[in-house]
Structures are given as C-alpha cells and as structure tokens.
Amino acid sequence: MDLLSKMVVGQPHFIRCIKPNDDREALTFSHERVLLQLRYTGILETVKIRQKGYSHRILFEEFVKRYYYLAFKAHESPLGSRENCLTILEKAKLENWILGKTKVFLKYYHIEQLNLFLREVIGRVVVMQAYIKGWLGARRYKKAKEKRENSAVTIQSAWRGYEARRKYKEIRNRRNNAAIHIQAAFRGYIVRKNYPRLKKSTGCVADSQHMSSCSTSDVDCEEHWPQTSNQSSPAVPDFLDKQTKKKDWDEISASSFTVKNTLKMSDSQLISQSQSITDHQSSPLRHSKKGGKENREQ
C-alpha cells in the first residue's frame, strides 16, 4: 500500500523504448520493425483505452486547490465541492469530462489544456505584480529622492544662514572699529586744535598768580615758583605725538624761564614797570576826556 500510495501521489509515467532499426544506424527508420514492436508491447491497446477512457482521476479538493485560479480570485479560498469543480470546468470550456461522487474524470488532453490555462493566468499575474512592484518601487524612490532633496535644501539654507550671519558680524565689527578710529582721530584733532588756546589761558593765570604771590622777596618767589608752576601747569594728553609734546614743553620751559627772570628783578623796577603800564593804559582815557571837553567848549 505504501508503494501504491506513493505512485498515485507521484503520478508516475512509464516509458517504453522502441528501436528504429536493427543495424543501429542513424537517421534510418524501419516501419515494419517499429509496428511489430508496438503490437507486442501493447501500446496500441493503451492508446485505444486512453482515447476511450479517462486517464486522470482527481479528487474535488485537490482539483479546486490546483486550478481555482481559473475561476476564482487570488484572495478567495473556495471549498473543494462539486459546484466549484463544475465552475472551473465551465470556465475552462472543456468537453468530454465526467464528475463522479468524489472525483473528476478527465482525459489526458484535458490536463494539458488546464495546465496551459493555468500557466497563462499565472503569467498574467506575474506581469501585473511586476508592474505593481515597479510602480511601488518608483513611488518609494521618488519619495526618498524628494526627502533627500528637501534635506539637502534644508542643509543648504542652514549653511547659507550661518555664512550670512558670520559675514554680517564681520562687517559690523569692521564698521564699529572704523567708527572708533574715526572718533579717536577726530577727538585728537579737536584737542590738538584747542590745546594752544588752553595753554595760553592757563599760562596767563599762572603768571598773574605768581606775580601776586611774589611780593616779599626774590628768594621766596624762587622757592614758591616750582610748587605753583606744578599746580598750574596744563595737563598734556597722552595721545599727543612726541613732536607736539616736545614743542609744548619747550614753550612751557621758555615761559617759566621768563617768569623766573622777571621775579629776579628788584621791587623798584617792578613798581616802575607797573606804573608805566598803568600810565600807558590811562593815557588813551585822558586823551579821550580832553577831546570830549574840547568838543563841549566848541
């Protein structure tokens, strides 16, 4: 029984060898010799039986499971019933078949036709699946490409923003530094421009203070002069160049030398000089008064 069950499940095929001639020559065919072999091997009777009988007997469940693609959709799972087998056979448009109680009786050419139809249906399904898979793959590729392009655009925009901010900071720092240099140069120019006038005014104040304080003796004036000169000397800014400082300090030293020389003069000479200065200043007033009187007398 095991061997028989294996043969039924495996669908064995028996092969009989026929010699075309007795001389073993190629491309030679002896009709009498071949007909004799066919008669004695029983092939002619087998052919007649196959033509008249049903060589394939298949159970309903197995027939539906094998050929349900011809009449049903792929996602359907039909039962192995007589009605479903009838639907499949009618869909295939076969003739000379018989349905038993549990099996389908088919001739040899019926199986060949059913297998051919099944291969065609499977081929169409494969083509449709290939198109659908190609479409899905193209859509996935487009999405991935768009995502990659969007990510590239995002990275580029972020990099451009970073570069723009960096350049803006550099330009702003340059402008600030340039403004600071311009302001420093302008302040230095203003200070250098006003420095001579301030020096003259501070020098006059210092001379008047020294003249008023030096009324006792020359020795006291000489002792008192360095202190007052240091207190009343103008403050020189640090941003002046060396030449300006040198000239200014030369002028200051010259003025201090003249003040010291004037302090060494005697009291009588100072008094006489002050009287001459006052007479010289009052002479225009006298002339103006005389002129006014003469105008009135006239």
Structure summary:
This protein is mainly α and 298 residues long.
Characterise this structure.
Residues 206-238, 268-298 are annotated as: Disordered. Its main location: other. Belongs to the TRAFAC class myosin-kinesin ATPase superfamily. Myosin family. It is found in: Cell projection; Cytoplasm, Cytoskeleton. The chain is mainly α and 298 residues long. The chain has a domain at 1-52. The chain contains 9 helices and 3 strands; from the N terminus they run αααβααββαααα. The chain has helices at 2-10, 31-41, 43-52, 60-67, 82-92, 108-213, 218-232, 242-263, 267-297, and strands at residues 56-59, 98-99, 103-106. A hairpin with a 3-residue loop joins strand 2 (98-99) and strand 3. It starts with a helix and ends with a helix.
